[in-house]
Amino acid sequence: MRGRDLNPRTPTGGDLETFTGCKTEFNQNKPTKIKITEKHISNILNSMRVANKTKDHIRKVERILREFAEAVNYECDFEDVVVFLEAHKNKAHSYYRKYVIYVRKLLKEAGADFVDKIQLPKMPKRRREVVKRDDVKRLIERIRSLDFKLHKQRLMQQRVIAGLLIMATSGLRPEELYSLTLDEIDVENRTIRLEIGKTASGKTIKDYEERVTFFSEEAKQELLKLLDMWNDGKPLFNVRSFYSMWEYYLKDEKLKPKHMRKFFSQQSDRLGMPTAVKKILMGHSLRGDVDLSHYDFQDEEELKKNLR
């Protein structure tokens, strides 16, 4: 082969081979989007029902699942998930974390192979809030000073006052208060017995453990005022009353219903209540605590002595 016949574009001088197949191969290797179906969503929701989660909690999860599925038109790849979650980063840290948790669940249910790429965000460690007796007293007086004319407004006002004092002196969680029934309250003896099985209202108790706790004489008097106004065809307490109070009348108030349980915990420590008794009254998880789980039981009278 003479030099003029060599192809200068190749190392050997031979002819270039025809370019074939690469474009097709590239298209074949392109990641395909996974399909999300109604069956995937219903499987997650049904598993929560079997686990006896509350109806309200299931509704919130369903809302997140459907919002994501509709946003990606029921099919997505990893980049679509990133875009969706990035658009929700402006939400509160705890709420954004729930989005990540349940989007991951849905993707895992749909068989996505990139689930492990979606890591849970770290929760910021904020300065812990200190709630003292004067803080609770100020809040109660502020609510009491509101001048309501309508009966439904005064009923809401009394519901909130009685509910806050019950939570502050018993350690109840807000969701436990909202689903509390009169059958669970011994008003005369200032005793609350939280029971499992209020399926009509979708109620469950955290960690699925029944417990007894107590409230103060002041809370008892406010509860009696509420009962005088209350129509027994409606819930004794409900989340709407508390939501409306803060949404329309206490917009600038930093102290919320959830802080009453914090006050109970902190005040119990200030008064020297044994940690074991406080855990029992507040319904803290006893998993991992062998002594409290198997040996250290207290009857009602012994528990009540710690509150006197």
CATH level 4 superfamily of the largest domain: Intergrase catalytic core
Q: List the total number of helices.
A: 14
Structural class given helices, strands, pairing? mainly alpha
**Strand order within the widest sheet?**
3-4-5
H and E order: HEHHEHHHHHEEEHHHHHH
Q: How big a fraction of the residues is strand?
A: under 5%
Describe it for me?
The protein is mostly helical and 308 residues long. Strand 3 and strand 4 form a beta hairpin. It has two domains: 84 residues, DNA polymerase, domain 1, CATH 1.10.150; 173 residues, hpI Integrase, Chain A (Orthogonal Bundle). The strands form two sheets. A three-stranded antiparallel sheet has the order 3-4-5. A two-stranded antiparallel ribbon has the order 1-2.
Provide the descriptors you would attach to this structure in a database record.
308 residues; 3-stranded antiparallel sheet; hpI Integrase, Chain A; two-stranded antiparallel sheet; DNA polymerase, domain 1; single chain; 5 strands; 2 domains; 5% strand
What does the secondary structure layout of this molecule look like, with pairings?
Layout: H1 22-29, E1 34-35, H2 38-50, H3 55-71, E2 75-76, H4 78-86, H5 93-109, H6 133-144, H7 151-170, H8 174-178, E3 185-186, E4 191-194, E5 211-214, H9 217-229, H10 239-249, H11 258-270, H12 275-282, H13 290-294, H14 300-305
